[in-house]
């Protein structure tokens, strides 16, 4: 490949910054511009050198950008943005509202087919790499049971929820998988697990001055949907402690399948991630799938695809012959 | 799919028996016949019901078998068998001589293209699932280093080697990954490792009566290629102990990539297997890829493919819509 793949980024939060940095690690790619709803001239890029454009100018880049990496949120941004952008460009996104993926797929597929573009939806690690592993392990061990655990890591949704509790000035929530349960599965057990059995929730709270700590604690641990079904620990800390120890965005998790072959022979497959930065890792997955989107589109394919539909060789800049020699 | 996939097995050792059992776990598949170089009427199948045929009759099954699963060895069987069978049938094999895969690929590809068949070569877990994970993690974390560990498990080649030592009546060899090294990698280190640092070799030997135990030990630990580069422990046991404790064929291993994103952020990806039976698990992988071979061939594709070239959705009997809804 002599031509570099021309990339655009739509949305410039933590994920967009991660994509900008990841592109620098891939010499076959080049960042053309970052598109934002904010004032472009008031943004500075992580590398200090990227070009910002207002999102309204995106159409002028048709033919100049090979793949748009969409870095908006799943709640309101992507349901609008992906179909709109997919009608003009190849796209990759990290749409992660699991229950609505089928509907999202159909909508994006329609737009991408119309525009003769290729859209890889719902990449990242879950959905994404974890989905690949659920599929792989279920296909190989049809008699078995799989378990997905998340953490230890920061949950943005739960952190937002605790910050809305009266008396809370700041706070962060960690989802923590229960280590003993994972060990029992690794040793071949296939327990029936409730929500409470699988994960703990650890909250680190900076209270407002004079706040009723017991009331905060009670409001959190009984909060429906977010905490009521879990064992939740609430820790009160100072603003300094929060800044010193809770600024990172670590995450990770496990997909474990415990199955049997033959006459009850136990076989265990496990995939795990331990990430110091969730958005930077997700960004790296998006960038690898941007390469796949470009190559599939170059071969004449169009429409919506998921990670399940794409051969892994499309993620690599190496040739098939090199991959067979070096990695197989 | 109303039609079941018609499968043939070529070769009936541990792997062939594993394939026979795995087919029973996949209701969309049916075993037509097992082909052998031995006297077919002197074999009994693991399920007790399979039909045996002499390998010389294989051509009569053209049009009656969708995929042949080749269960011979990589040293002498598969280099002959895969090209020969690929000229008549779709095939799947577990060719695992890493250094010769490029040459094998070309030879099989030529035969498969000529016969308009599709051949998935070198499946199993290494090459196979471990290759997929090396590719996935290298593509997502281009700045990083990956480590493959095997074990704890029985190595057939090393077990054969110790059984050839004078004075050895019977024996088995386990390859054991060094746990402390794996832990250091999981904690983010990327050490430079020699062969000796990564794996131990544990030998359990039944000596012949009156044999010189020190001489056996010395012959093993100094054996070039097999043991000289490793720390090797030799344990002498009785025939009863060998039968009671060392009849299984467990194996497993780890592919770990430790990489960085952004400004030195550490990210770790790991895939691991813990197998009570190596041949039964490998067989299960072959059967899943037989489904892929059948589907790719039904779509009009031909030639040689590896696991790197095949979307994981092809391994599953479920539809794309079901996979998106249930697994993504």
TrEMBL record, chains A, B:
Family: Belongs to the diaminopimelate dehydrogenase family.
This enzyme's EC code(s): 1.4.1.16
Xref: InterPro entries: Diaminopimelate_DH_Ddh (IPR010190), Meso-DAP_DH_C (IPR032094), NAD(P)-bd_dom_sf (IPR036291)
Name listed for the protein in its UniProt record: Meso-diaminopimelate D-dehydrogenase
UniProt KW keywords: Amino-acid biosynthesis, Diaminopimelate biosynthesis, Lysine biosynthesis, NADP, Oxidoreductase
Top-level taxon: Bacteria
Domain Meso-diaminopimelate D-dehydrogenase C-terminal, first and last residues per copy: 124-277
GO MF annotation list: diaminopimelate dehydrogenase activity
Pathway: Amino-acid biosynthesis; L-lysine biosynthesis via DAP pathway; DL-2,6-diaminopimelate from (S)-tetrahydrodipicolinate: step 1/1
Pfam families the record matches: DAPDH_C
Catalytic activity: meso-2,6-diaminopimelate + NADP(+) + H2O = (S)-2-amino-6-oxoheptanedioate + NH4(+) + NADPH + H(+)
Subunit structure of this chain's protein: Homodimer.
Record-annotated membrane-spanning stretches: none
Coiled coil: none
């Amino acid at each position: 490949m002599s031509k570099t793949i021309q990339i655009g980024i739509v949305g410039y939060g933590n994920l967009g910054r991660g994509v900008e940095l990841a592109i620098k690690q891939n010499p076959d790619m080049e960042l053309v511009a970052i598109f934002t709803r904010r004032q472009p001239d008031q943004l500075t890029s992580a590398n200090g050198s990227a070009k910002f454009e207002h999102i309204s100018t995106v159409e002028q880049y048709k033919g100049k950008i090979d793949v748009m990496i969409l870095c908006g949120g799943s709640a309101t941004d992507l349901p609008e943005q992906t179909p709109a952008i997919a009608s003009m460009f190849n796209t990759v996104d990290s749409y992660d509202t699991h229950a609505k993926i089928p509907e999202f797929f159909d909508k994006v597929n329609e737009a991408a087919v119309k525009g003769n573009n290729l859209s890889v939806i719902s990449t990242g690690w879950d959905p994404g790499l974890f989905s690949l592993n659920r599929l792989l392990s279920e296909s190989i061990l049809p008699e078995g049971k799989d378990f997905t655990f998340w953490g230890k890591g920061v949950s943005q949704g739960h952190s937002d929820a605790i910050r809305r509790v009266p008396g809370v000035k700041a706070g962060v929530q960690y989802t923590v998988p229960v280590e003993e349960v994972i060990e029992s599965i690794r040793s071949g057990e296939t327990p029936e697990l409730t929500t409470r059995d699988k994960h703990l929730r650890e909250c680190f709270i900076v209270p407002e001055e004079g706040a009723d700590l017991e009331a905060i604690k009670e409001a959190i641990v009984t909060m429906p949907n977010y905490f009521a079904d879990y064992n939740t620990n609430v820790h009160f800390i100072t603003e300094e402690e929060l800044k010193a120890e809770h600024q990172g965005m670590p995450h990770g998790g496990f997909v474990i399948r415990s199955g049997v072959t033959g006459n009850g022979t136990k076989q265990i497959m496990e995939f795990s991630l331990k990430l110091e930065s969730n958005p930077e890792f997700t960004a790296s997955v998006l960038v690898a799938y941007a390469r796949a989107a470009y190559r599939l589109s170059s071969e004449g394919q169009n429409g919506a695809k998921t990670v399940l539909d794409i051969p892994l060789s499309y993620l690599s800049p190496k040739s098939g012959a090199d991959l067979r020699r070096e990695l197989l």
